[in-house]
Amino acid sequence: MSLPADFLTGARRLIPPERLFDDPLSTLAFGTDASFYRLIPKLVVRVESEAEVVRLLHLATRHKVPVTFRAAGTSLSGQAISDSVLIVLGDYWNGREIRDGGNQIRLQPGVIGAQANAVLAPLGRRIGPDPASINACKIGGIVANNASGMCCGTAQNSYQTLAGMRVVLADGTVLDSEDERGVAAFRQSHGALLEQLAELGRETRANTALAERIRHKYRLKNTTGLSLNALVDFDDPLDILTHLMVGSEGTLGFISSVTYNTVPEYPHKASALIVFPDVDTCCRAVPVLKQQPVAAVELLDRRSLRSVQDQPGLPGWVAALSDGACALLIESRAASQSLLHEQLAQIRAALAPFPVEQQVDFTEDPAVSGQLWAIRKGTFPAVGAVRATGTTVIIEDVTFPVEQLAAGVHRLIELFEKHGYDEAIIFGHALEGNLHFVFTQGFEDPAQVARYEVFMGDVAELVAIEFGGSLKAEHGTGRNMAPFVEKEWGSDAYQLMWRIKRLLDPQGILNPDVVLSDDPQIHLKNLKPLPAANDIVDKCIECGFCEPVCPSNGLTLTPRQRIVIWRDIQAKKRAGIDTRELEAAYQYQGIDSCAATGLCAERCPVGINTGDLVRELRASQAAYPERANWLAKHFAGALKGVRFTLRAADLAHRLLGAPRLQRWSEGARKLSGERLPSWTPAMPQPVKLIPPLDQWQSGKPRVVYLPACISRSMGPARSDSEQMPLIDKTRALLEKAGYEVVLPAQLDGLCCGQPFASKGYPEQAEAKRNELLAALREASRNGQYPIYCDTSPCTLSLINGEADGLDILDPVRFIRTHLFQRLEFTPQAGAVAVHVTCSTQHLGEGQALIEIARRCSTNVVVPEGIHCCGFAGDKGFNLPELNDHALRTLKPVVQHCSEGVSTSRTCEIGLSSHSGVDYHSLVYLVDRVTKPIAL
Q1: DSSP letters spanning 168-189
Q2: What is the pLDDT of residues 53-98, one digit of tens each?
Q3: Which residues in 604-679 belong to E strands, given as ranges?
Q4: 8 A C-beta contact, residue 878 and residue 854
Q5: Which of 112, 218, 357, 606 could join 229 in a cystine, given CB atoms 3.0 to 4.6 angstroms apart?
């Protein structure tokens, strides 16, 4: 059924057309979240203000059109998808206000959880909820799902740490619980609603059996159904209302902002991995630990340990553990090291009576602790990585009473064996009795769907009835557990939830069939297909963790969406369905506008680099292999052509001035069908050819200096405060540090191959890379000397693969490993903006770059949320909207900085253009603030 014409007309009047999506590609792209369900919305609306939400709800109410709200789309139970209208958050929901020295923070729903913690960290505070998806999920979803995590338990979740809320109800009314005048007006306008809520509270508290059941249920972690504890915890209907919103999954209203009471973030931490000989011993230790000063206790059964036992850094004995072994990963935190040591002594004493099979004792070393926690965090992706193509990974989320935890684990394992889920693993937050179990499931075969149906029925009976536990501890009910809410809660509580729903959403337009549903089969409908598409991406579980770092997120597609669409194209082709229209749209949305820098792989739980898929697709479309061959063979001549073009552009700049040249450039680009590149005042001047260096035996240590082809052609912009080309500046710095600089022979014809690879010519790329490696081997005398490459993307290209023992270093690694001991740093006062390039992140040098900048300046600024600048080689010239979009928030953050630093010349062009600040290589800053140390 289509949407009412009057609703669509009204929506188009309210929302600009660029934020309304109803085309097949966009609706399919937004039809997935991190769950195993799919619904294709008829309309996707990107909202940028509360006023737009209010007007849309007025319109939806008038025309009885269901709507669903989405923040990040990382939820796991199907609560962020719709076959009607999907309302997604745009850019302007990132407000945050720190109060009372960090004891409170007010946040809009678009703030990523990790960003909230980042602004609180200098104050030694954080928000209470700590979901595993905190680097991707947003505050709106955290509150709406009452998401928790490893440490927050039931004491620090959104419900318990809520200090205030601003909410838009189904009728479009706005209530801000922290605005006294607004509250007074709401009590007047919605007095009848508040009185009904108050009456529901009185009825519930008077029903002793029901009230006690509610209190019992929320002693456990529980997100099944609506938050009925609001009716027994509060008597003021305003408090009842705001706390009902927590965990309501968008079924009762839209959360426009929330104020948290924050919790301490203790600086001193220690972690241990204790392996017990069996599940019973392990689970008996949990209640003992619950009385100790522990921040987190994670349980891992033998299957989960086996799934990660081959990961780097894990002790060899993990593989040799007995079949019945079960482990606890324990963390303790404290305000001081002395207090931490006292706590560790208490914990060790408490565990002393228990037999232990193996252990890694408490360590305060962050590196070792990180390896231990990598065990826990690696379990879910480990199952995902080995699943059969076409199947999905399901992570369920239940709670047993802690005193019955061992029995619960054994019974779950029995169900796995009964239903043939041999790969299933169990891990979880042991202190709360909260277990996650992960298994793979196919849905293409009706027999597999039937198996899943029977299995989930058995799980519901086991957890909810036999053990009196929670079917959803922290992942939200969604449509996944909606049919089982009454089984868990009983008829009285279930009907109470429906009364609340009908009171606050009388027309049932807010996220129907989520949390509460009349359809007992809703959890078996609209199951998401994961068809084979390409080996590179077939392991994708569509979790969305990749999306925050993607520069095209919000412009075209995200990595998750690129995979969704490509899967659909391949499935349609196999079914004989015409995909030409979809593929035509995908060309720009999916292929052309992908930066292909691979940052998505850094966030992906199973390490998928969507850029690899895009490069493969580009290679399949590459139509000019002979041109690529010619360019590879005549690379020095091509660089001369680049310098000539830059010289001509620079001459035009001098003659016409920047404003006129920019206008002419834009006009020429339009006339050319956008084939000509864009010109901006940040366009570089040409670099003069490098004279060969005389080689002599000076007795100084040697370094082979590889100037990237971009450094050999593109100098500083005419307006840049630094006018010395990077090549000259680098040589000066290396010589200041006491090095003799060696350049490879025939330098101007050399290239790392990356420009060819990005355009879809992998053979030519590999040939150029091998040619360069041979030249470096000769220049370094078979690796005797370190090789310094002045641009991080080229360094990454060279070391990705066999580099024949050559020690190739990017600027960051070379400075920290070779120059720190040779140069004395005197930090400057001027503020410096730092951009950590994608390649620097891949090289693992991101934090080191920031630390070097802090040696050079007392005021270092790292803009939040800019992970990739979107320049992506030459895309900043040929697809400037990608660079524009990626850096749209940069200027206000860095406008007070005196300069910016990075490690990629093309990135610096885009950064300078969009910030009004001169960005140049880190080398310039290091050279300015250093002098030689007498050796």
Answers
A1: EETTS-EEETT-HHHHHHHHHH
A2: 999 999 999 999 999 999 999 999 999 999 999 999 999 999 999 9
A3: none
A4: no
A5: 218
539 neighbors 606 (Cβ within 8 angstroms): yes
Burial 777-790 (b: 16+ CB within 10 A, else e): bebbeebebbbbbb
Distance CA 467, CA 415 (A): 15
As given in the structure block, the two tokens for residue 232 are 């027994």
**pLDDT at position 935, please?**
63
3-state DSSP assignment of residue 190: coil
Q: Shortest CA distance to 618 belongs to which of 413, 727, 763, 757?
A: 757
Task: Count CB atoms within 10 A of the CB of residue 148.
Answer: 29
Other Cβ atoms less than 10 A from the Cβ of 280: the count is 16
Predicted confidence band of residue 800 (pLDDT cuts 50, 70, 90): confident
Residue 850 tokens read as: 């920031």
pLDDT in the model for residue 851: 97
What does the DSSP 8-state code read for residue 590?
Answer: I
776 φ, ψ to 5°?
-70, -35
| DSSP symbol at 32 | B
Contacts by residues 652-659 (CB-CB < 8 Å, ≥ 24 positions apart): 653/681, 653/683, 653/718, 654/718, 658/719
Q: What is the pLDDT of residues 417-450, one digit of tens each?
A: 999 999 899 999 999 999 999 999 999 899 999 9
Count the residues in the chain. 935
Residue-wise pLDDT tens digits, 672-724: 787 778 788 888 899 986 665 555 566 899 999 999 999 999 999 988 889 99
Question: What 3-state DSSP class applies to 164?
Answer: strand
- What is residue 249's three-state secondary structure? coil
The single-letter code of the amino acid at 751 is C
Q: Does residue 775 carry a pLDDT above 70? A: yes
- In 3D space, the residue among 144, 141, 170 whose CA is nearest the CA of residue 65 turns out to be 170
Each residue's pLDDT tens digit, 88-138 = 999 999 999 999 999 999 999 999 999 999 999 999 999 999 998 999 999
Element (H, E) at 438: strand 434-441
- DSSP E strands, 656-800: 684-686, 702-706, 714-717, 740-742, 787-789
Alpha-carbon distance 612 to 598, whole Å?
Answer: 7
pLDDT digits (tens, 9 = 90+) for 649-671: 888 888 888 888 888 888 887 88
**Token duo for residue 699:** 């007795």
Rounded distance, CA 374 to CA 881, Å?
Answer: 38
CA distances from residue 147 to 143, 296, 819 in whole angstroms, order as listed: 7, 16, 46
CA atoms within 13 A on the CB side of 1: 6
Alpha helices in 490-549 (DSSP H): 491-504
- For 208-239, b/e burial (b = at least 16 CB within 10 A) is eebbebbeebbebbbbbbbbbbbbbbbeebbb
Q: Which amino acid would we find at residue 628?
A: A
Candidates 281, 498, 269, 278; CA nearest to 362 is 269
DSSP helix/strand/coil, 126: strand
Contact 709, 672 (CB under 8 A): no
Cα 909 from chain centroid (whole Å): 26
Whether 178 and 164 have beta carbons less than 8 Å apart is answered as: yes
What is the tens place of the pLDDT at every residue in 135-144? 999 999 999 9
pLDDT in tens, 368-403: 898 888 888 778 777 877 788 999 989 999 999 999
